[in-house]
Design goal:
The protein is mainly alpha-helical and 132 residues long. Helices cover 58% and strands 10% of the residues. The chain has one helix at residues 2-78, and strands at 83-84, 101-106, 109-113. The longest helix has 77 residues, at 2-78.
Length: 132
């Protein structure tokens, strides 16, 4: 009677070993699958990022060109309209309070006055007249 019990225990041990080997093999397969999956996911992510960046460049570059052209047009539109530049202590101090001071900018060029279009060098302009 002892033989069949011993044989039964040996069969159980063999089954246990085989089940353990099976699950070790499955674990190794699953681990290698995850490694391959991570590699594929990383490559896919890099590829998608590169393709998306290229797509955005192709899409956005013409917009930047249009914006740049529009900015140039706006700058060109601003230049023809004169705007006033007031004399300060550092820029055209001889013209402060002068009735002949013009101070308009035309196409990027400042016309200081009719007598001295570029202004007077020192603080004693010979043509200064009070604006009062």
């Amino acid at each position: 009677m002892e033989n069949w019990q011993k044989d039964f225990l040996e069969i159980l041990e063999d089954v246990t070993d085989e089940v353990e080997h099976f699950f070790v093999g499955v674990t190794e397969i699953v681990d290698s699958f995850f490694e391959v999956s991570e590699t594929i996911a990383s490559q896919l992510q890099n590829t998608i990022e590169i393709e998306f960046d290229l797509y955005l460049q192709d899409w956005a570059e013409p917009l930047f060109d249009v914006y740049s052209d529009l900015e140039d047009v706006m700058n060109d539109l601003e230049q023809p309209f004169p705007h006033l530049v007031e004399p300060t202590d550092t820029r055209h101090p001889a013209c402060k309070g002068c009735s002949q001071y013009h101070g308009q900018v035309y196409n990027g060029n400042l016309l200081v006055c009719g007598m001295h279009p570029y202004g007077w060098e020192d603080n004693n302009c010979p043509d200064w007249q009070s604006s009062n």
